[in-house]
């Protein structure tokens, strides 16, 4: 009888382990898709646009994730005086990493 209980317990642990691995794999796949998709979520977009406005930018064309998700690239960010920049921001704290004036 105890031998059967041990087998059942081992089976339950194996199923639990498999379920845990499967859950982690799904989460990792979702993260990869999000990074590969390049587009910010609505919350990320709101945060990025708020920072851009604080820094004096009035409009921009595209915001996309780059460098394996480590940075945001902002294309054609315009200041009030009409200057156009391409920007690269750190994905975690949105610090400006690169700023290139476009002609």
Automatic annotation (TrEMBL):
Protein name: PepSY domain-containing protein
InterPro entries: PepSY
First and last residue of the signal peptide: 1-29
Keyword Signal: yes
Keywords, comma-separated and alphabetical: Signal
Residues in PepSY domain copies: 18-97
């Amino acid at each position: 009888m105890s031998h059967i209980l041990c087998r059942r317990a081992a089976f339950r642990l194996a199923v639990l382990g498999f379920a845990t691995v499967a859950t982690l794999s799904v989460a990792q796949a979702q993260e990869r898709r999000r990074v590969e998709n390049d587009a910010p979520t609505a919350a990320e977009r709101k945060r990025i646009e708020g920072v851009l406005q604080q820094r004096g930018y009035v409009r921009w064309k595209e915001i996309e994730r780059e460098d394996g998700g480590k940075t945001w690239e902002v294309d054609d960010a315009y200041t009030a005086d009409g200057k156009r920049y391409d920007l690269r921001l750190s994905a975690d704290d949105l610090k400006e990493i690169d700023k290139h004036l476009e002609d």
